[in-house]
Amino acid sequence: TIRKRTVVTLLDDDHHTMETYFESPQGEFKGMEIQYERIA
Question: How many CB atoms within 10 Å of residue 31?
Fold first, then answer.
């Protein structure tokens, strides 16, 4: 069984990141990191 968790970090009003971590019997590894920027 692989478990997944998502971490969203708010940097400021216009930027945040979303990181996805996967946990397997070999340990946890980061699947992806997405950076969001709001364009007015």
Answer: 13
Ramachandran assignment for 21, one of left (phi > 0), alpha (psi -120 to 50 degrees), beta (any other): beta
Residue with tokens 């946990």: 23
24: amino acid identity, one letter:
S
Tens digits of per-residue pLDDT, 2-38?
A: 899 999 999 999 999 999 999 988 899 999 999 999 9
Cα–Cα distance measured from residue 28 to residue 25, given in angstroms and rounded to the nearest whole number: 8
Task: Determine the Cα–Cα distance for residues 10 and 6; give it in Å rounded to an integer.
Answer: 13
Here the tokens at position 7 are 């971490």
Give the distance from CA 3 to its chain's centroid. Answer: 14
